[in-house]
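hiii, so i know i said id send this last week but things got crazy w the move. better late than never?? heres the sequnce for the chain we talked about at the cafe, plus the structure i predicted for it. fair warning i was half asleep when i ran it
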Amino acid sequence: MLAACSNSRHLPAGESLYKGSKVHINDNAASKKERKILKNDLVGAVRPKTNTKSLGVRLKLSLYNLAGDTKKTKGIRPWLRNKVGEPPVLASSVHLDHNKEIMINLLQNRGFFDAKVSAKMNTDKRRKSTAVFSVVTGTQYKINKVYFRNDSSDIAHKVDSAFSETLLKPGAPYNLDLIKAERVRIDRGLKELGYFYFKPDYVLVVVDSSIGSNKVNMYVKLKHREIPPEAYRVYTINDIFIYANYKLHGKSEDTGKAEAVVIDNYQVIDKKKTFKPIVFSQAMVFEKDDIYSLDDQNVSISRLVNMGVFKFVKNRFDPISESLINVYYYLTPYPKKSLRFEIGALTQNDNRAGTEGSISWRKRNTFKGAEELMFKIRGGFEAQYSGPVKQPNIYNLGAEVNLSFPRFVVPFLDIQTSSRFLPRSIIKLKYNYESEKGLVRISSYTASYGYNWKEGPHKEHQLYPFNFTYVTTDTLGNVSDLHLLYGNLVFDGIILGPTYEFTYNSQKNGLQRRHSVYFDGLIDLSGNILGIAERADYKTHPQTILGSRYAQYVKLQPDFRYYLRLSGASTLAARVMAGLGIPYGNSDQLPNIKQFWAGGNSDLRGFPSRLVGPGTFNEYSVYHTTTYLQTLGDMKLEANLELRQHVYKFLNAAVFYDMGNIWLYNNTTVYQRGTFTRDFYKEFAADVGFGLRFDFKILILRLDLGMPVRKPWLAPDQRWVFNQIDFSNSQWRRDNLVFNIAIGYPF
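okay and structure toks below
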């Protein structure tokens, strides 16, 4: 391998290895920011690309050379050379004159009309070459005035009336991409006015650079000689035909038109009456006698797709006169019923591992209104496979029923939405059973009704005005032999109240921009109006519903994340998360299923799972025991910073820093020094670590190794523990190094 790494040894005589390009901009006509952008774009435009690197090493090229020449087609050497390896990129394959032309063209497209580029190839003693390009940009031309050459056609007047929205602003730099975007803007504007056959190619932008002072005048006009007669016409929607059970390999598209049934002005061909009229009334935006609109076309298709009952959706437009157009929708439904099996594994960083599985049955279009009914049964267990303190096995079993409607179902109201994403009304019934073997059994019953809707691709809302949860806990016999404390996990009673969650994600279609943000905010209420009306007080005047005490609290949970792409291979990710739970009236603390915890493979990764805090509480430092199953709090603050680096194909690496803690809202004897105070900022736990991520597309396997650098339960002047780090000490490694295995990114 070391021999193979000397890649230039294997090159043909007289050749050198191409290791990349450099661009020097030798004048200051462009701003510093513009020069930086130009350098990156110009270097990226050079062809061919160099051999790929991983951690600074041309690994693929090294493997190619290691395999050597072979005439065989099978075996490890041909596989290593031809499948895994990569042949050298030779300096002779870099055509400098061609790359100069590409660079000049790119610069001119950015407004540097007088740019000059020279190039040379530098070769060092190790037979490695670098292409060096020297650039003089000259002054960038800017837009002086923009004119629209109006004429007598109606279409020209329509463009002129919307010209105030032009992207070509006086004073802005000349940019070819901006001119193309202006043509698209004009096209979209005309299509919203019914010009179905218009195209961006029918718009011409003439640029006059002869006016002097490094400025240009722009003249926007229509290519009347190239525009066909139909592109001048405004089209109105005539009949809308909907084939509700269209088969891709069935009869011809127009078969059955005579059998159409008029439903809310739609011609529906649905012989089996599979769908109710409300399905199309809710989804379709096009209506008979409407002027054609591109936006209405896209919204209608999107709503039909997001309904979840159609596997394929396509449409066709057929002009029947000089002003009328018929619309055809061909909808291919999914199979009505489906069965799904899932099985998975999980780990915790406190030496617990387990498995979980589920079976779900789904029925689409349950009541012929595009509803979806889903039954699901799931189960799993966790067991501790090592560690100094033996904890009980955990078994869980659950069942749930979900029924969703692709519209707002609100009593006495008919709510319509113009979004391209259909809202969903959801009814949920859920049962969950959990057993801590030999310790405690918890059963919970949940019923909820609410709505899920999107404003657009970035904003989503979830509102559940009705939530009812009943929790009952059974303790099992004498558990003193287990030496475990679980009293903080026991809650018997009812949780009754609404929840609202708002999510904003600036990333679209999974593509990350240079700057991306994510925000999720949750409001969770329980027993508020009822508790206030009954003047409930958990000490002197506790109240019940159906014989069970109910929880009363306000819970807020904002989660903000920011992602910065430093380069094509590295990203800086940051998260700030806060949780505020205020129990009052009928409760002295949040129910344990609503409380916060800290520590674990997606939290504070240098600490045991769910055993950080609250406050400066630490069981071992207080009681010199390790018996708590987990520690919980009513409030939480956490911040995470992670630098992610792509290494090779599916392999990514990261370094991270986590800090945070949880606290109680009220004093309790369960946790000493666990209450939130004005000195909360002195009580943060912190850790650092390194991780690997294996991105297999269908899942991301994450391995993180963390260690604490700040322990809040120590004396105030001893909480930073950098001076205690000792990797050579086996006892220190056992006490401080925490290994995490997880699926997906932590945030």
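btw The longest strand covers residues 459-475. thought thatd interest u
miss u guys!!
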